[in-house]
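hiii so um. not sure if this is the right channel but i have a protein structure encoded as tokens and i wanna go backwards to a sequence. like what aa goes where. can anyone help
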């Protein structure tokens, strides 16, 4: 049941999931019709409250008295299930308002998803119900289920009431729901709430996540998503659910459309690399959601997070690894190797045993056994070998978690081994995950482990991935939080520059204007000048110290290097004049119709690691920031990561550390250690710039030269695109 501490909106969600009375509007006497089957499912599921069928043509349905209309029911109704076509559903919604019903579940289809009149009716239903504080799930959904013995509500298409457990499931796909319920029954998998949200006309996934966070029955949430309609608000609210101090609740999500999402048709590097999936990856990462790639992983991870086993005092507890050091105990070499590979791929590593642990293992295992990690207790291992080996490795201070693999041999006692594992789990604070390979020969052991709250999987790679997910969540829960930066930004000056550019019809800003804007937010740029003629090039070179760089400036040539439009390390005025002609000729060869603004002559920067920073503004979600390895390697390696603004100090640090080549900044193979603090501040400043100036649609700062520690960073090239309000000039 749910402990409610918020207002009426949350109370009315409670009326949907734990109603005392339910009316089914559109209940039918005809088996096979939705109105009949949903009513039958509620009735046969043993609903603990009062059930009213509403049908103007029936006296009773399944021996329960029927009522011609909702208003003719003599008692209060908490929840109304509407199973009527849109044109009639609107009338039922008005009756629900008159009856002071607290919640609606609209199962019927034909609303927003078909457009036209259906969309109009959906909007009208939502409008009138919101005025009265009535919450709606659906329409176009498969319903809701609450298996709690005190409620037992199965207002859904499923004929089976699932087992009561501590996991809630939310799905945008109705068809997936029935398949998941069937799959869960085979796995002996229990749910606390099961919700099909359909069109999300009113209640959406964020409403439900906030509700389930307060639900005492729910300890883990699984969610299938197709799209989100809320951006930064979603991140901030969900972060409190997953990582907050009050009842932190893991959320495991699968998001469809990963491969179908294309990149935005954008001009910059950032736009080309940042498709909608990058947005969702950023949302999940920043909000503390664990993302999975398959339905099977969704179940595997949820099973690991939901498992609770007793300690020696008889208290149930969830165990997560304090570190990433894993011990593997197996009776088969092959599966042990598979587990090892997936352990490393999942962000974990094999633990190195202490000498004491190795001695204990040697004293209990045969000479043919491997007493190092992964521990091979040999194929003929009885339960005592497993117990001794697992006891030894879990006592080792250098081990944070254990993975136990059992393959059924003729001498294997799966049940006895499971009992031994459970005994050790009771006295250990470390997570123990099991893989009992097979089905029939290990079934008794698997059942025993499940009954005692120990996660068990069919294959070693699944167990290793699940342990990796537990570790990832543990690191998120315990991550370091530093005080936010206090940075000085000249917002007013930036507004003036943007206004001037728009007045002049400039929307694709070159390096000079872009550099001006960036300087307002603490970015260091290079001394430079724009030469339209060779004479101007000579004058500018006289004002600079050699060596210099020269770059083509054209709104039609986005990637200068591809056009031969960048030359570095020019050491004399004569070379400047010669290079001027060469760049001009190459640019026109590359694009004969390109508008050439001139050639930028720029002071060469000190050496540094090349980094890219970028931003692309998305509808709904707002500015998506990007950081990664820069220069010409952006498209080649695409080693970039994303975060949705706003980004403060701690989020910036975490984002930058996700770059695969992050070691390059930390003194890799004798390279100088880079000024990461400067990069952190620049990412925070980029976020502030994106939030403060909605006219900026894209930013591409590539490369930024990240100098040695303490020396900051310098922008070597940049471009900014403003929102185009008029035709481009």
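sure thing!! here u go:
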């Amino acid at each position: 049941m749910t402990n409610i501490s918020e207002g009426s909106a949350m109370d009315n969600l409670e009326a949907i999931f734990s109603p005392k009375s339910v009316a089914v509007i559109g209940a039918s006497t005809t088996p096979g019709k939705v109105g009949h089957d949903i009513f039958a499912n509620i009735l046969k599921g043993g609903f603990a409250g009062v059930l009213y069928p509403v049908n103007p043509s029936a006296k009773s349905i399944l021996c329960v008295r029927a009522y011609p209309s909702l208003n003719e029911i003599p008692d209060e109704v908490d929840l109304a299930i509407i199973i009527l076509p849109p044109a009639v559903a609107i009338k039922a919604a008005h009756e629900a308002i008159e009856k002071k019903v607290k919640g609606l579940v609209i199962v019927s289809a034909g609303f927003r998803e078909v457009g036209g009149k259906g969309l109009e009716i959906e909007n009208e239903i939502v409008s009138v119900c919101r005025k009265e504080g009535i919450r709606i799930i659906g329409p176009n959904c498969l319903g809701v289920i609450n298996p709690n013995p005190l409620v037992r509500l199965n207002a859904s298409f499923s004929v089976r009431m699932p087992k009561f457990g501590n996991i809630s499931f939310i799905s945008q796909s109705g068809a997936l729901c029935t398949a998941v319920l069937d799959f869960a029954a085979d796995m002996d998998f229990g749910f606390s709430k099961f919700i099909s949200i359909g069109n999300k006309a009113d209640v959406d996934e964020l409403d439900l996540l906030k509700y389930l966070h307060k639900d005492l029955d729910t300890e883990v949430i699984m969610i299938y998503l197709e799209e989100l309609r809320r951006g930064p608000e979603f991140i901030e609210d969900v972060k409190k659910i997953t990582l907050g101090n009050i009842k932190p609740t893991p959320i495991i999500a699968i998001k469809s459309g990963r491969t179908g999402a294309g990149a935005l048709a954008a001009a910059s590097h950032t736009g080309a690399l940042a498709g909608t999936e990058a947005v969702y990856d950023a949302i999940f990462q920043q909000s503390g959601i664990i993302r999975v790639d398959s339905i099977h992983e969704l179940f595997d991870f949820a099973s690991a997070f939901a498992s609770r086993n007793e300690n020696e005092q008889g208290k149930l507890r969830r165990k997560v690894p304090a570190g990433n050091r894993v011990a593997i105990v197996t009776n088969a070499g092959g599966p042990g190797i598979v587990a090892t590979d997936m352990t490393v791929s999942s962000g974990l590593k094999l633990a190195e045993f202490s000498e004491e642990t190795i001695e204990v293992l040697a004293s209990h295992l045969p000479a043919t056994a491997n007493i190092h990690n992964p521990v091979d207790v040999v194929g003929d291992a009885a339960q005592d070998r497993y117990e001794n080996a697992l006891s030894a490795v879990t006592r080792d201070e250098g081990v944070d978690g254990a993975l136990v693999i059992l393959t059924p041999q003729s001498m294997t006692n799966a049940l006895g081994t499971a009992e031994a594992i459970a005994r050790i789990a009771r006295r250990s604070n470390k997570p123990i995950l099991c893989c009992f390979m097979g089905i029939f020969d290990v079934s008794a052991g698997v059942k025993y482990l499940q009954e005692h709250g120990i996660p068990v999987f069919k294959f070693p790679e699944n167990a290793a991935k699940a342990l990796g997910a537990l570790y990832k969540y543990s690191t998120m829960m315990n991550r370091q939080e530093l005080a936010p930066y206090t940075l000085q930004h000249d917002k007013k000056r930036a507004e003036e520059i943007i206004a001037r550019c728009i007045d002049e019809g400039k929307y694709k800003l070159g390096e000079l204007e872009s550099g001006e804007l960036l300087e307002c937010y603490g970015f260091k740029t290079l001394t430079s000048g724009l030469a339209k003629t060779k004479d101007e090039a000579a004058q500018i070179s006289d004002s600079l110290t050699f060596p210099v760089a020269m770059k083509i400036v054209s709104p039609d040539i986005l990637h200068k290097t591809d056009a031969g439009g960048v030359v570095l390390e020019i050491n004399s005025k004569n070379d400047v004049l010669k290079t001027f002609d060469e760049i001009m000729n190459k640019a026109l060869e590359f694009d004969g119709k390109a508008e050439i603004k001139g050639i930028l002559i720029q002071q060469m920067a000190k050496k540094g690691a090349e980094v890219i920073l970028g931003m692309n503004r998305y509808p709904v979600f707002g500015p998506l920031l990007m950081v990664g390895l820069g220069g010409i390697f952006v498209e080649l390696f695409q080693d970039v990561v994303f975060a949705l603004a706003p980004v403060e100090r701690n989020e910036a640090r975490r984002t930058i550390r996700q770059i695969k080549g992050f070691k390059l900044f930390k003194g890799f193979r004798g390279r100088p250690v880079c000024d990461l603090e400067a990069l952190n501040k620049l990412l925070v400043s980029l976020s502030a710039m994106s939030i403060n100036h909605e006219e900026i649609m894209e930013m591409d700062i590539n490369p930024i030269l990240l100098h040695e520690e303490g020396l900051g960073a310098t922008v070597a090239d940049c471009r900014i695109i403003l929102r185009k309000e008029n035709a481009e000039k």
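oh and The longest strand covers residues 696-706.
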